[in-house]
Amino acid sequence: MWLKPDEILLKNAFKLWVTEKDNEYFVLQRRRGYGEGGGGLTGLLVGTLDTVLDSTSKVAPYRILHHTPDSQVYWSVACGVTREEIFQHWEWLQQNIMRTLSVFDSSEDITSFVQGKIRGLIAEEGKTSLVLEDDPEKFREALLRFEKWFEIPTEEKLVTYYSCSYWKGKVPCQGWLYLSTNFLCFYSYFLGAEVKLVISWEEIWRLEKTSNVILTESIHVLAHGEDHYFSMLLHLNETFSIMEQLADYSIKRLFDKEAFEREPALSDPLQITKRGLEAHAKSQQFRTFFRLPKEENLLEVHEGFLWVPFSHFNTLGKICLSENYLCFASQDGSQCHIIIPMREVVNVEKPDSGSRALTVFVRGKKALRFSEVRDFQRLANTIRSRCGISASPQHSASPEVTRSHKDSSKAVSTEALMTVFHPQDVENLDPKMLKEKMKEQSWDIHFSEYGRGTSMFFTRKTRDLIVRGVPESLRGELWMLFSGAVNDMATHPGYYTELVELSLGTSTLATDEIERDLHRSLPEHPAFQSDTGISALRRVLTAYAYRNPKIGYCQAMNILTSVLLLYAKEEEAFWLLVAVCERMLPDYFNRRIIGALVDQAVFEDLIRENLPQLVEHMTDLSFFSSVSLSWFLTLFISVLPIESAVNVVDCFFFDGIKSILQLGLAVLDYNMDALISCSDDAEAVTILNKFFDSVTNRDSPLPPTVQQALVSNNGKASHVGVDISELIREAYEKYGSIRSEEVESSRKRNKLYVIQTLEDTTKQNVIRVVSQDVRFNITQLDELYNLFKRQHFLSCYWTMKSPALLHHDPSLAYLEQYQLGFQQFSELFSLLEPWAFCTYKSNLSLWVFRLIDENQDGLINFKEFCCALDTLYSSSFTNKLKFLFKLHLPPGYCVFLAFTGSPLHSEKQRILHYVPVPEDSSHLTRLSGRGRIDLQAYLKQWQNEILKKEETIKDLPRINQTQFIQFSKTLYNIFHGAPEEESLYRAVAHVTSLLLRMEEVGRRLQEPSSPSESEKAAGTSPAEDSSTEQGPVTPESCDTSSSHNSQDAGSELSDTEWSFSFEQVLASLLNEPTIVDFFDRPLNIQTKLGLARVAQLKGLKCS
């Protein structure tokens, strides 16, 4: 590697470097302790220095220095890990530089020329790969160390590196921490003791910051049941943030199969950079805080003051700009914040350049005045340019979209169901309606002071009004505003009606589940006892399943959507559902409900922190996880009466998941004494159910026919009722100190553990199923599963287009979640195959792949893989032979006729002929959620699997001439390298000739032949027998013998090809004790498993 010329003093390096080559202008040196001799004590000291010092020129074992005869100054210009690499640089210097240096008159000119040339080479190399790094020169040096120490494939992208201490037991090891796209690596070398650590991100169970008496602050990593601690980091928070993001990136890409198509910084695993990760994290925080769409990215941040009209003073905060939004948040984050869509901005003015201020005019005669903005000119220009960009697409829909919206308006409900079924009586002056009117007046006053709509100020007073309760008439409007759904709907006019039309009449698994659950959604409410409510619910759920096939439909979505439809128009309810599923409750509504499980873990942490008395009594908090699952999935709608549950939803749309966690703590706190006195879990469940039944909403203006608490509390007067407003207020007073940032941090920390727990459960289920069909023990299956899963991930590490990612179907059973394409199967099979095949290795793996891929989809699951290995390792001689025999029959061994007339294509052509998976695969149709599912085909396939009988040797077809010759060659390859190789070759040759003679005799018995021909045939047999016993036997000679025999046997009957049945082959081989003993010999897979673990990563080539 070429280095930026750096001045060094050679006299300080005499004891550390040995000169191998030199000339008038360059010196090639080897690091003492490397290469021949080892270096003894000096070598140990040098190795220790190499690890501690932060410069590759001091670490690489070879280097080239430039000097001039009349100068004592030397310049490092190149370094290398291997002798071959450094000698290539030396040769290049000899051929391209040395001839030119003679034309210069002075040493200064020579040195300047060499330095310029080297810098040019470095710039050319770094144009593509290192252009995004903060310090390309230092990064090149770190990359060299990374590749040298860990021997990870060159495709792996190093993201960043840090100096730190790694605690191995009670002793710290000073070294370097390297963070790459797929691995966490650490290297230390101190006086001969080398510490090398490589952990894949997807193997990590815990990642957290910790501190104790010995370590003031450190990063704790739990992987493979081992704890690892990293301390003495100069930028610990930065390091932890990068580690957190890389772990989360791997989880989403490898487990959830996300492609990050809308996030350029993460779309290519070969181009991940520290700068890109930091920008992505900031954008994610920005979107979460301001509830913005996923497409928005944080472009600029300015610090300045905003004139707050309701407080009559300037408040300090940050001005944040994205593609379509201008946002401001005060310094403490809770005092006030405002979101201004660029589509609402009409003008930007700068009063005068001296004040560093600007005024943003918004529709509705509203103006925002920013002052003391350092780069106010740039801010003003950015806002102007963004307004011009965003105004067009967001306000003018295409003619087709507009027409679609008009045509479909009749089919889509334009009123909230509560308005249709329970219109408010204006003349009703009962106390509840009067209180409702007072709430409306309070909100009207708030709107007059803080604004209304998308440009409203969000303040503490807004939260206070939410806690007191939202008026029925304003609920839908405020839900849209607080969730950010109002912006989604404004920027996508006509989108929902298009989805309704496209999804109308589709039949998928999602639509079947939707139809099943429609009448279970708030069945007691009049709105969902009529076709109006049911049809609206069907349209919203079906449209969303069409929009987001990855989620499709999940139970609990129907309950949530029902409540949304009560207070929002149909299109608004759709966008509210989008906001909840895709932003506010990520990963909640999918097959594994990971998001809900993660928030349950967060809830357990909060219980330990805030309710110590309960923890002392109930040490196992998993009970609360099982009880609270419905709380999180339905936002308490499924456990509280509807008139009380909507108040909880109000708080959720304003404060997010934090409000649900606070309310959960308040519920447990309210029932603390009763829960502590419980004798078992059933009693605790009963207590909580009675409590939820007793919750009322005394201020609700809904009629008695709708209020569930009135119906459910009949006969339960003994239980004291609790008002939902008081419960929510208590939750905010006691637990309002919980910060959203802390919740997000806890979510990230617990997500790893939750996913790994689910993965471990999946592994146990798969092993339990597979163990019934194989003879491997549980430990061996566990190791096989880990290797198989890792091979699956290795195929996804450096590409977003691997077969495993492109054709992943999350709806499949757990047994099908991890599959291997041919390339990955071939690599893993070569590590675990029981015999060392000398040739045709890739051909044999291709035949095995074809044979065990029963559904012909080009992917192998774990069960198919284990059954094949089990046959080769543990089956009887007959079953092993049957497996090898079937390899040489279609679909395993196939002969493709090329245009040249050759019977076989090249290996690559044959692989490509088989491996591709069609784009319209059935499992992709199921994944899309948009195609029609053939349920009859599923049932027929299931019935065939149940009725499938065990194959007998009589069911196998006969093997023809070409297949038999290849079968013989395979046996030779299997026996290569065995101790009894010579006798095995002789046995195969004998069996081959015997089978050919048997076939010839059989033909002669079936066809008339002259006596002389029979005698001639019989007379040649002893000669053939004797020929097989003369001299040493080789695979080549055996192949020749077999081919001669086949030519002789078929010379007189050339028009008819000969073939053998499996019974004939088996009977012949059973007469050869050497072959029988070879296949019956016990094979131990444990040794292979140990070697495979080490070699799996080193032998990998990026496919």
UniProtKB/TrEMBL annotation:
Domain (EF-hand): residue spans on this chain: 840-875
Keyword Flavoprotein attributed: no
Cellular location(s): Cytoplasm, Cytosol
GO cellular component: cytosol
Xref: Pfam families: GRAM, RabGAP-TBC
One GO term of the biological process aspect: glomerular filtration
UniProt-annotated stretches for the region Disordered: 1003-1052
Cell inner membrane keyword on record: no
Rab-GAP TBC domain ranges (all copies): 469-656
Ranges of Polar residues composition bias in the record: 1023-1049
Source superkingdom: Eukaryota
Stretches of the chain forming a coiled coil according to its record: none
Keywords, sorted A to Z: Calcium, Cytoplasm, GTPase activation, Metal-binding, Repeat
InterPro entries: EF-hand-dom_pair, EF_Hand_1_Ca_BS, EF_hand_dom, GRAM, PH-like_dom_sf, Rab-GAP-TBC_dom, Rab-GAP_TBC_sf
GO molecular function: calcium ion binding; GTPase activator activity
Subunit structure: Interacts (via domain Rab-GAP TBC) with RAB11B (in GTP-bound form).
Main function: Involved in vesicular recycling, probably as a RAB11B GTPase-activating protein.
Protein's name in the database: TBC1 domain family member 8B
Organism: Oryzias sinensis
Lineage: Eukaryota, Metazoa, Chordata, Craniata, Vertebrata
